[in-house]
Amino acid sequence: MRKTGYYPYLILIACCGLMAATYGFFNTQGLYLDAISAELNVGRGTVSFSSTLTLIVSAVAAPTVAIKLRSKYSIRPVLIVSGILTILMHLAVTMFPSVVTLYLYGMIFGLTMAVYGNTFVVEMLNSWFEKSGTATGIAMSVSGVFGMFYAPFATSLIEKYGWRNAYYSYAVILLLIMSYAVIVIRNKDYTVPAEAEKKEKVFNKALLLLALYFIAGASFTSFGNYIASYGVSIGFTLSQGAILSSTISIGNLVLKLIFGYLTDRIGGYRTALINFLAIVAGIVVLLAGGNNYIIAIVACFLIGSCYATSNVISRGLCRDLFGKEQLGIYYATLNVFSAVQAFSYTFVGSVYDRCGSYIPAVYILLLLLVIGFILVTVDFRQKKKHQ
After folding, report:
1. Measured distance between the N- and C-terminal CA atoms of the chain, rounded to whole angstroms
2. What's the CATH code of the domain at 151?
3. DSSP string, 204-250
4. Calpha distance 354→17 (Å, rounded)
5. Rounded to two decimals, what is the model's pTM?
6. Domain count, the chain
7. Which of 292, 311, 295 lies closest to 303, judged by CA?
8. pLDDT tens-digit series, residues 49-96
9. Residue range(s) defining the domain that contains residue 208
10. CB atoms < 10 A from the CB of 328, how many?
């Protein structure tokens, strides 16, 4: 650990909260699809495009607008303004529900996720902890913890009081999280990565191959977000679908902790291999099990590992390929490519609208995952040749 005492752990708790406030909630938005699409009388793909916009804006803003804001202004005011903006737009969706409002919210949420989401958390933990892989795994896993508890809670609210009240609950949770983060993260606690200030060109072939893996692997999170809806489509109840969503969140939690630890112990590539096998196994078990609920639960736990691809795994791969000192800027640049995989959210919803099944989309995502891992394997073999 680079800084002693208890304060690094307060920083870690704040980072955990920020991951819950961003990706934790984002990964549970599939719970609202049926209710919102029914009220607005539009398809699920139309509603889910809001999530696509969130990822596109977040991807583009992370290495550009977000870093500039954090470097130009003190971090506390940036966190305060971003948090307030997110809460206001969240309330606007409930007060003025429409496709336009949803899309505007999706873009604002994407911007604020770029400001205080995973790239910010990685930068903070990389500077505060020597074993930053383990710390990153803990922080990133909280998005799974949040989903594990929030999914059944939100489902209950949706069934009893409507989706608006569930949205209100998140606004309250976000207010509490941002209040703690603003208190704990002092202006002096955050410094812009030196490599970002140099404004060096970081795009290269190694990053491109890693980005293609990032796109393919992270695209699987789109299916994870639809898992509750998938469960309903094969005959499960909404409550059972919510349990599947919670199970994925549990897998997200447990496997991110394990993968974070493994990136420090055995390296990014070997950990990525284990992650890849876990996702493939989960999909095979899910499809082979049909509408067997117990088998579906086991499969969802394994599929939860897909959420580690774009943060814990990609962070470890970036560190091994480009070095610890260059981690911040390369990881932020890598997140630009999530703008491409963002379309997978709309793609999966659109496939269901056209085919009445999620399975064709799952086959395509599985093929992309295989290709992506082959490319990252080539990436590391080329690195070994040049050593």
Report:
1. 29
2. 1.20.1250.20
3. -HHHHHHHHHHHHHHTHHHHHHTHHHHHHHTT--HHHHHHHHHHHHH
4. 38
5. 0.72
6. 1
7. 295
8. 888 888 888 888 877 788 788 878 888 899 999 999 989 988 888 888
9. 7-385
10. 23
